[in-house]
Amino acid sequence: MLKAEAFMREALREAEKDGGEVPVGAVVVRGDRIIARAHNEREAGRPFAHAEMLAMERACQALGDRRLHGCALYVTLEPCPMCAGALMLAEVEECVFGAYDPRQGCCGSVYTLPQDPAFFHRARCVGGVLEEESRALLQRFFREKRI
């Protein structure tokens, strides 16, 4: 679990990059190496620019392949339906996330899309890695928005 925590700390660093965005960060890892990183960029007029989507797109570019075989996605918030679907289509091996999303999470909370047997590709989902830190970052952001 130490390796997972180290990669999640990198995702948290991405999430802390400001810009008025909901603080979500993601890294894509292959072996012991981060091959891509991203944070939310939705407020820049790009509604689909979730951290996960951007990190996976950058990882595909770095590898020169649309498939992310042997890769793990580390993200500070449980992926939504769009991102969970994208990680399946990119054939990510594992999704590790920090905070659960009881309203929209599709890697264990509301639904577990990446493990649904109806689909060709399945990905392992592991939640709760550095959950408190991930949740605190989100709570602080929304608390400051309300002030």
SSE succession: HEEHEHEEH
Q: What composes the largest sheet? A: 5 strands, mixed
Structural class: alpha/beta
Strand content: 15-25%
In which order are the strands of the major sheet placed? 2-1-3-4-5
How confident is the prediction overall: mean pLDDT? Answer: 95
Question: Helix segment count?
Answer: 4
Task: Give the tally of β-strands.
Answer: 5
Q: In angstroms, what separates the terminal alpha carbons?
A: 37 Å
Give the C-alpha Rg: 14 Å
Give a quick set of tags describing it.
alpha/beta; single chain
Structure summary:
With 147 residues, the chain is of the alpha/beta class.
Account of the 3D structure:
The structure is a single chain. By secondary structure, this protein is an alpha/beta fold. Helix content is 35%, strand content 20%. The longest helix has 16 residues. The model has no long low-confidence stretch (mean pLDDT 95).
Helix-strand blueprint:
Layout: H1 2-15, E1 25-30, E2 33-39, H2 51-63, E3 71-77, H3 81-89, E4 94-99, E5 124-126, H4 131-146
Parallel strand pairs: 3-4, 4-5
Antiparallel strand pairs: 1-2, 1-3
